[in-house]
Amino acid sequence: MAATLKDIATKLGISITTVSRGLAGYDDVAAETRQRILETAAELGYQPNLIARRLQKQRTDTLGFIMPTFGPRFSDPFFSEFIAGIGNEAAEHEYDLLVSTHAPESEEEKRAYARATQRGWVDGLIVIRTRENDARIRHLHEHNFPFVVFGRTDVPFEYPFVDEDGEAGMRLLVQHLVDLGHQRIGFIMPPAGLMFSQYRLNGYHETMAANNLPVVPEWIVEGDLTQRSGAETVQQLLAQTPRVTAVICGNDLMATGAINRIQQDGLTVGVDIAVAGFDDIPSSAYVNPPLTTIHQPIYDIGRQTCAMLIDIVNGRTPQNQHVLLTPTLIVRASSGSSIL
After folding, report:
1. Cα dist. 145→75, 139, 210 in Å?
2. Residue 24: how many CB atoms within 10 A of its CB?
3. Which of 154, 197, 209, 291 has the highest CB neighbour count under 10 A?
């Protein structure tokens, strides 16, 4: 039979109330007494009743992440890395993580956010892949519900976020290719409604202009962040005359798809055409050829957003509520050598 609070109290000769408050960490229990309580609880194999504890605290000790994707995409390395970061940080603080998937801007997604704020099935939410005037962030803000965001948007109020400077990342990629001698640089951009897509597009235009290079509208095509769309959209760029000599993809998955299609067309990536991605997912180093990309510490961002949310849920103000990370260029064989 499992040990109870009464068993601990009887063994120590103190009240059940003192045992309960000692286990909960209340400061009206002497440090020496609390230590004896903890040691005895461990000796007897005591496990707290989580349901009762959560009812007492009026919290679930559960954090939520509603993944905005069409269909189950847990195989996407980006989401896998991010969820691993959230989950490991949550576990270290004895929080559970509840994950669900809903298509972006769908009625199902709206209902999921409504359930979170109205039914109390989680203590707070982590939001990702921000949109213009993001309705999710507005909803959470209006309901005064704890949340942290991976990304920025244009809402007229402050909110806690972690993000990487996407404009700066694109400037690094474009300048790297320009320095290699490329002038016709195509861009397979993420869906236009996503804020990070706009930041990356701005960085592309700014760097092309800074180098007095033209941008032909047909050099910019839109993908959906999948390998399939990378393969399909790069064909549009390959069909143009004169053909682009370099392609930047809005994420590494699209870059992987683009590389596969380019090779199917008989071209050598890194020789006939340069390709670069964005994110530095673990598999990007093992593509053939290895992918030049921008490193995002996705796992660490997951941990950081989770740690900030736990602070907020517990009434603490995070030390830094607006974190903008500096990107790092990772040069590999896919961008090739100088063509000058």
Report:
1. 30, 9, 43
2. 13
3. 291
Q: Which of 289, 279, 219, 285 is nearest to 254 (CA)?
A: 279
Task: Yes or no: say if 292 and 277 are a contact pair by the CB < 8 Å rule.
Answer: yes
pLDDT at 53: 53
Give the mean pLDDT of the chain: 92
Structure tokens at 204: 């592309």
Is residue 123 pLDDT above 90, yes or no?
yes
Per DSSP bridges, beta strands 220-222 and 185-189 are parallel
**Which positions ≥6 away from 331 have C-beta within 8 Å?**
176, 292
Q: Please give the backbone phi and psi of residue 306, each rounded to the nearest 5 degrees, phi first.
A: -65, -45
Helices (H), 123-279: 135-142, 166-179, 195-210, 227-238, 252-264
CATH 3.40.50.2300 residue window(s) in the chain: 62-164+299-326, 166-296+329-335
The per-residue pLDDT for range 40-79, each reduced to its tens digit, is: 888 888 876 554 554 455 567 899 999 998 765 556 789 9
Query: What pLDDT does residue 51 have?
Result: 46
> Residue 19 has what pLDDT?
84
- Could you say which of 1.10.260.40, 3.30.450.30, 3.40.50.2000, 2.60.40.10 is the CATH number of the domain covering 5-48? 1.10.260.40
Q: What fold, for 62-164+299-326?
A: Rossmann fold (3.40.50)
SS3 breakdown of the chain: % helix, strand, coil, rounded to 5?
45, 15, 35
CATH topology of domain 166-296+329-335: Rossmann fold (3.40.50)
What is d(CA 172, CA 176) in angstroms, rounded to the nearest whole number?
6
CATH 1.10.260.40 range(s) for the chain read 5-48
